[in-house]
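Sync notes, pocket subgroup
Present: LS, DG
LS reminded everyone that the earlier model was apo-only. Rerun requested with 6-O-phosphono-beta-D-fructofuranose included. Inputs:
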Amino acid sequence: MSHPRCDQTVAWQALAGHLQAHGRELDLRSLFADDPDRVRRLTIAAPEMVADLSRAHWDVATREHLLGLARECGIEARRDAMLAGEPINGTEGRAVLHTALRAPKGQGPHSELVHDVLDRMLAYVDAVRAEGRFTDVVNIGIGGSDLGPQMAVPALEAFADPALRYHFVSNVDGQDLASVLPKLKPETTLFIIASKTFTTQETMANAQAARQWFVDVGGTDIATHFVATTTNVAAAAQFGVTTTFGFWDWVGGRYSMWSAIGLPVALALGSTHFRAFLAGAHAMDQHFATAPLAANLPIQLGLLDVWYRNFKGYTSRCISPYHNGLRRLPAYLQQLVMESNGKCVDADGHPVPYATSEVVWGEPGTNGQHAFYQMLHQGTDVIPVEFILVKRPSFRQPAAMSPALRDLFAEQHRMLLANGLAQAQALMWGKTTAEAAGEQAPTASKDLAPEVIARHRTFPGNRPSLTLLLDEVTPRSLGALIALHEHRTFVSGALWGINSFDQWGVELGKAMCKELLPRLSSGDVSGLDAATAAMIRQLRA
Ligand code: F6P
């Protein structure tokens, strides 16, 4: 099935014309003034959340043209092909079926395989939790074998087993593992070696070092204390791991948290909550598969991403979760979006003449406000911000909770929400120089005229944002939130006509590292470029 590339569609030309005619001047303040119904019309309900897209830089005509783009590019057929298990990852000759991992038993492709491993893994999880032999779980993995669990475990802290401590070791820098080891006792530690390929340099190095430490400090029974999650069961066995939970090549690394790679999450949550996590993602899959384009949240967000990147020229977006548990979400989304869509050729290998992946970055609110929000409000770049607001707090409360302390925490949650609301408001409204001039300015240099100071205190406003509103961060809502981002990433990648499911861009550096590693010991710099050779000499001096 062939679909036109986005830039060869009628809708793309229409969007370019629309940008020339109106798009450059889109001003949120007038859009709101002109349309009292804007919030209702641009609010989309999806499983476990409501999205307010009214503060995005678009209007009715933009959305119509974008829907035309989605239709011309065959987004529904492409989506259906992915969900049906067609081999859409052409460069690796693979299907893309992370959705099958969260489909209920008996539904979706590979159901028997998926549920065999899931049932076995969750039986193991419940047994480990019931037994209470472990105090510490150490996940050793990197990229997709680390970022998901490292994000989800703190996000779901309120649901996690408090008897267990969780550690995530990813970096090949020995500092990472070494800082965890003093907290561990071999007899109460479970190491999970998480690697789709079981060949990744960082993970293998940390796994070997962990096993060495275990033996050095008198640990016995490696079989009980080391488990593996991988598609390469044979390599895990060779390493000496006998308890292995497998998955399959049709699960991409950055889409693998739903597979055995989710073992740390499952250990933290127990089987019931882990199944709820999968169910939340499945609910979003169904929304993506069936909701009409205009009310389909992943599709609307993917279209917005293309509009922003290719027409408005925005180069990044800022993820701002007003929920401290979601502090690793920006890092998780960085891999999801940038490893998926950071490509410069289309699926047929032709260079694409338009921009692809935006940069994704962020910090939880309110911390970001005291770091980079200055630039978001007054910098020269426009950076769309994505707020995540959560109605009810969810964190493990201190054992001794007096009514006074409860009230203080309740007030802190209101402060958190008020900050998130205020930032979205300030970005949109800004402050004119006249308004700033009318304010009582704080002490400033006597050498600066009041109008100069007022200009420094002016906010341009009209800075776009969107808000995802959740009732609570629960296993189910987190599952839905992550699936939303997966599908949104698929949508923009499909519109750009790229393969969002390979990652050749990480290979070159890996190969060069292999070549350089022995040179650091031998000092042989023959054949190297002058800069690398000079650096090796200095490192060895
Ligand atoms: O960095 C590239 C990458 O291949 C990611 O796509 C993947 O998530 C990560 O390395 C880890 O790979 P593995 O799970 O095979 O160790």
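DG: DSSP finds 22 helices and eleven strands in the chain.
LS: The first strand starts at residue 43 and ends at 46.
Action: DG to write up.
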